[in-house]
Amino acid sequence: MATITVRNLDEQTKQAIRERAARNGHSMEEEARLLLGAGALADNPERVLTSIVNMAEPEATVENYAPGSQHYFPARGKTVLLIICGGIAAYKSLDLIRRLKERDVEVNVVMTRAAGEFITPLSAGALSHSKVFTDLFDRQDEHDIGHIRLAREADLIVVAPATANMIAKISHGFADDLASAILLASKNQILLAPAMNPAMWNNPATRRNVEALLKDGVQFIGPETGEMAERSEAGRGRMTEPMDIVGEIGRLLDDRPKPLAGLSVVLTAGPTHEPIDPVRYIANRSSGKQGYAIADALAAAGAEVNLVSGPVELARPAGINFFQVESARQMHQAVKNCLPVDIAVMVAAVADWRVANSADEKIKKKPGSTGPVPLKLTENPDILKFIGHHEQRPKLVIGFAAETRDVIKNAKAKLKRKGADWILANDVSPETGIMGGDSNTIKLLSSSGVDEWPNLAKDQVARRLVDKIIAYFDSEIISV
Ligand code: CTP
Hints:
The protein has an 8-stranded mixed β-sheet with strand order 13-12-9-14-17-18-19-20, sandwiched between helices. Helix 4 packs across helix 12. 36% of the residues lie in helices and 21% in strands. It contains 17 helices and 20 strands. The chain is globular, with a radius of gyration of 26 Å. It folds into 3 domains: 6-50; 79-252, Flavin prenyltransferase-like (Rossmann fold, 3-Layer(aba) Sandwich), CATH 3.40.50.1950; 258-354 and 374-475, CoaB-like (Rossmann fold), CATH 3.40.50.10300. By secondary structure, it is α/β, with parallel strands linked by helices. It has helices spanning 11-24, 28-36, 45-56, 90-102, 121-128, 139-144, 146-153, 164-172, 178-185, 198-202, 204-215, 242-253, 289-300, 328-338, 383-388, 407-418, 458-475; strands at residues 79-84, 106-111, 132-133, 156-162, 189-194, 219-220, 224-227, 234-238, 264-269, 274-275, 281-282, 304-309, 321-324, 343-346, 353-355, 377-379, 396-403, 422-427, 439-446, 449-457. Cytidine-5'-triphosphate binds at residues 268, 328, 346-348, 350, 352, 380, 382-384, 399-402, 414, 418. Cytidine-5'-triphosphate binds next to helix 15, strand 17 and helix 16.
């Protein structure tokens, strides 16, 4: 038998084999051997393996969505040219750069002269890991890259913040600085995130300019309504928050197939916190990672995702509707508000009980008392059961079952009791060390049986589940 040197395989092939191996419960060697079959005897088994893996990957399912650390960000590997104009919101653009880089987006930055009054090219360059371009007549920049190339190399040009002045210049085709010259030379999509005083936004001149740009096919996000940086000023003019701009960038650059487009989802994730008094609460060890990974994978497949999340330490996923809650009752209310939807995925580790008489003031110790402190608990609403029996019941209702023993027996009982179509059961007994970890060993139960999955990373569990959801809506038949 020929030998394979893993080192000789390219990164993409290695990653593909790693994922297949995890999916199929094999070691990498076993997976490679199985894939190769007779090809192992070829002169160059590495090359044979590379072509098999790359050919064998399915085309239009979520499986071929590039996996991120945590996010399947649709604009991964694409190039965004970010033009920062002069405005107090320029500081938010630094966060925007950071969020895009976290998602493996290449970011080139151009700052107008006025932007330099608010942030420095040094900070923008440190975050984007590249030179920041500032001046049209910098000979070296012109020689090195030039405004035409900067414009053409980008998949998307984002202007954030876009000032009233810049909007006026673009709508009239001025090109008197690097930023406006790039915008005039660009044939690509342009996204503007305006930020200005509400009076400027409402001024008929700005209204006309925005109208003209919309007609030209320029995209806008915001501005939002709220408090202005200037004291006692409020109205429409705030720049949209960086994470929402990230979501829009993902949406605009997403050229993948959208098998779940047109379907809406409500998804719960994370733990709930049940107050004992204003400073103490009852919680559990749920990290929210599995729920967030499923929210990402559903959004990547084109579903409209409403994520109702308990308190977690995770970044809010881009491009979804997000509802932050603390207690089970708040989660219940937020889920109700999202109905009707096509799909419900209840991943949250909802506290079964809350404190019946939670105190408005911090509970003090009683001097001299060493006896047990009574805490009266009362049952929380069961959100999955509520959804499973609702008159607006989603077409597909999916729950999880965290069990420490008799996994299948308990999960089967939950499937029936809660009116779910599928239950993803996982063993969270302490020896598995799983709750809060990065992987899960799932048993998927439905009326037609039990499907046992190997131990998979949580983002792989998410993609596999989303594949099943796609298949379900393709055929409208439950097949597991
Ligand atoms: N769930 C819910 N609302 C609750 C309790 C649970 O929506 N108040 C959902 C969870 O999100 C999960 C499923 O029900 O999808 C099962 O949760 P689990 O905690 O395993 O089951 P419980 O109903 O709490 O049963 P037990 O604690 O007795 O195992």
